[in-house]
Amino acid sequence: MSPSISEDCIVIGAGVAGLAAAAALASAGRRVLLLDKGRRPGGRLASRPFEQAAFDYGAQFFTVRSPAFRQLVETLTAAGIAVPWFEHEGQTRYCLPAGMNALPRRLAENRRIACEVTATALRREQRHWRIETAGGAIYTAAAVVLTPPVPQALALVDDLDIATHQELSAIAYHRCLAILAVVAGDSAIPPPGFLRLAHEPLQTLADNRQKGLGGAATGVTILAAPDFSLAHWEMPQEETARLLLAAAAPWLGSPVTHWRYHRWRYSQPVEAFPAPCYGLPGDPPLVLAGDAFGGPRVEGAYLSGLAAANWLLTR
């Protein structure tokens, strides 16, 4: 029989929403464990080196609108972890010189996290949740916070009522294809190194060296627009990369020496749910959080995690 590991609360997903929820619950004295299927925390705050270049290939920056998130960002800037990148329409865009993944790494400090653990099912059993995993381990918890993209979250819970399932199933996501392009010299992207394009197939271009990520070579992150990403989702990588690199050529400035391809199935919610989290009826408690509820920004995910923790703590 697989061992059972019992917790006050288990948070599934160690992205920004999950990490924010875990921190708030731990501060209130709850014993919290995060489970994440990835090799490290972060979700779509993804960074990596490639062929002597450095890349952010998910979220490129974050903004600040709320007091709660501002408090975190002020801590990050004071520590030199986050820096202002550029201003647009009165809002400062912040980035992280060590890569956007440095934000979840900071939030993960002093947290209990089990990575490379894939939850496969959640079942109510009397006063606790039973969480089954792909590796055979069984976890139990008095409460659960679910932060994966909503379709993945719904696939885990086997006893949702029809109305709840229909309401949550209406939440849709854009897809996004990403190319990590290493160029031989400097890019032609004008300062500050970021372009948002208003036409297919491109959505944004980012010069990671101008952004401050460093690296001996220049790395350009190419993010495709939603319609193009959906239409080309199943096409061969080489064909899709050729189209995106050709479209980006006027801004690349130098020949591409290497490239990598990445697919974000759940890039951003098409439209945010009108509440910052979603508590499911019944006991033991379970609440969904993430950018689908808080809004399609890093700050939205963070605030949704806080809202989910508060929902649990006030029950």
Instruction: State the end-to-end distance.
Output: 33 Å
Strand and helix order: EHEEEHEEHEEEEHHEEEHEHHEEEHH
Query: What's the architecture of the largest domain, going by CATH?
Result: Alpha-Beta Complex
What level of helicity do the residues show?
25-40%
Number of domains: 2
Portion in beta strands: 25-35%
The 3D shape can be described as: globular
Structural class based on helices, strands and sheet pairing: alpha+beta
What is the radius of gyration?
20 Å
- Count of helical regions: 10
Poorly predicted runs are none
Just give the CATH class of the largest domain.
Alpha Beta
Average pLDDT figure: 95
Describe the structure.
- The protein has helices at 16-27, 67-78, 102-107, 150-156, 162-169, 208-211, 226-231, 237-252, 291-294, 298-313, and strands at residues 4-12, 32-36, 47-50, 53-56, 83-88, 91-95, 113-115, 119-125, 128-133, 138-146, 173-183, 194-196, 202-207, 218-224, 256-269, 278-279, 286-288.
- The protein is of the alpha+beta class.
- The chain has two domains: 4-37 and 117-171 and 272-313, 3-Layer(bba) Sandwich (FAD/NAD(P)-binding domain); 47-101 and 173-269, Polyamine Oxidase, Chain A, domain 2 (Alpha-Beta Complex).
- The strands form four sheets. Strands 1, 2, 7, 8, 9, 10, 16 and 17 form an eight-stranded mixed sheet that branches. Strands 12-13-14-11-15 form a five-stranded antiparallel sheet.
- The longest helix is centred in the last third of the chain and has 16 residues, at 237-252.
